[in-house]
């Protein structure tokens, strides 16, 4: 049968006739199967054509490009002689393949035509018939010859109808596609799909589609090697589905890419039009911004490094489109450079008398702080320039630490800024964020210098003891080291500013309630000034000079409208407030004035003088103050002194004995250190019972219990050691302790008394509780000598070196 005459072909239009990849679409009916897929027998020695990059299937007409001279000679001879040839696919790209370089399963084929193309190119059109198995290569000259056996595939396709319907579905799915040669589906031009309906033979259809899939050789070879057509059809449909899914993903990505490109092009053209319109109206907004920035820069007194950074940023602004985020980031940075007070300083008022007047006007007491500020102003007036000190004011709440910063700024005629550091946990809050981050900004130090407008403000770092330590956000306390080190802060580096800034002329004043939580390296850089609580006389003066006038003004009263007597203020301090500072006293005074404001607004008659008897109606009953106790001495009850973050406190140590086996028990929410002090005192008493007049049998046959009232409040520390010792001796000897005596001191197992801290705060607590005598360690005598005499008025101090010395003083013997 002459297939060229009996089978119609559709030739794809090509400019130069048949190209190297021209497709020839056969119009095959089911009756043509027996002619296309049948061979009676084949010779033992046949021409062998190694096929590179493709696989020929039975019944399929396929054009191939011919590159090897030996292959071209083979094809011309076969066409001329009408010889059948063996066609097998190559496993690799070698030019001279051996047996192992070839797939052993191939097809018997006829050479339909050999075509010469321009530029010395050649093409051959082959048609496969039956599948065969290559046994061996017989020779390689003048071209390959080999021996093969036929493989019978004349089996039916059980799911022929289902397969045929699926193929038609594919054709319909792609019927509206544009030319897809070499596209992601792997199929050749659209005409291939439109011609699938011309093939009514299911077997030819399977082989035709498989041969025209643009996929690697290996999966094609797997389909050729399938045992039957049903298996081959299954592999083909799986491959089609895979290629179909890949195409859809690729088309989706390409569609989105086209949309993005269209959007960018549209924005570009709109921006160009906008630029032209702006030029017609007198220039673009970005050009106006840059011109405005340049004019501001001419007035700055910055150094060369800052000037170069500004020039670089301006040049970057010129190159950056205004609609991009980078333009906004760079514009904000340039504006920060212009807003910073480079080499701008306020002129200090260096009159020490003026400074003293301002400080005395706003704050009563605080002599240490005032003296240090006066010293700084005096040296500054003599030297003309000096590094500012780094002061740290430590004291209980309500003692005026923060407000003192405002007074210092006014006294020196400087700007005042304040930063609250309580709860700060991010290092970037100090050093700033890098410009690359969205929403980046400088740290609080640079922000407040910018706010002040000068490079030498009074800068208050409030609550520096409450800064958080190391975390995943860095260590802010370590970042403060550079800020508060006089040897380093002349070149403070902010991550956002990216330039060194001189902070050496800033007067930093830190405030804290306790030094225990401040990092040691940071504490070493601070000049600590202790601000203890106020005594009664100081509170009366502060209320009379500051608190009452301010509250009267804030509530709409004149100074003469209401009068607070010293007796009334004393009752407010002793019965209604319990603090080292004056914050609660201030609130109590405000409450009294508000009651008078209600009376005045209602038109009721009222007296200018506020009586003590009225306090019960205005403030209620006096707040229970556990610091005040009866004057009757009690056995086993001793007054101790303690230090807390809010000032000094008195502490009652209660002890009692009962029949038992000589055990010691403790209650009152005591910490480990305090329990150890009680154990030390008990063991010392047992070891020296005879010296204290205590029968050892009494100790061994009795249980002693130690209790510290206010059990909801945790208590710890070693300073109650001497107090527990005296309380135990009092319980065992049944001798009462003088109620106006208080004591504090750490003890050792050898009977020694060692010094403790917080003496000034403890003295203030003793005065509030009307204590007259204090028992202290001998080594604490130097602490007492440093305290002003006003704080010590009315107190008698007894200094001891060992525990036994406290007994005759406590018992009055």
What would you say this structure looks like, in words?
It is a single chain. The chain has 813 residues and is α/β, with parallel strands linked by helices. Helix content is 41%, strand content 18%. The chain has 29 helices and 26 strands. It has a 7-stranded mixed beta sheet with strand order 19-20-18-17-22-25-26. Strands 3-5-6-7-8 form a 5-stranded mixed β-barrel. Helix 6 (202-212) packs across helix 8 (229-280), helix 12 (352-362) runs antiparallel to helix 13 and helix 12 (352-362) runs antiparallel to helix 14. The protein is elongated. The termini are far apart. The model is unreliable at 1-27 and 174-189 (pLDDT under 50).
Q: How much is the radius of gyration in Å?
A: 50 Å
> What kind of oligomer do you see?
single chain
Q: What general outline do the C-alpha atoms trace?
A: elongated
Sheet with the most strands, sense and barrel status:
7 strands, mixed
Average pLDDT level: 82
**Low-confidence residue ranges:** 1-27, 174-189
Number of helices: 29
Share of residues in strands:
15-25%
How many angstroms separate the termini? 143 Å
Structural class of the secondary structure composition? alpha/beta
Number of strands: 26
The amount of helix comes to 40-55%
Strand order of the largest sheet: 19-20-18-17-22-25-26
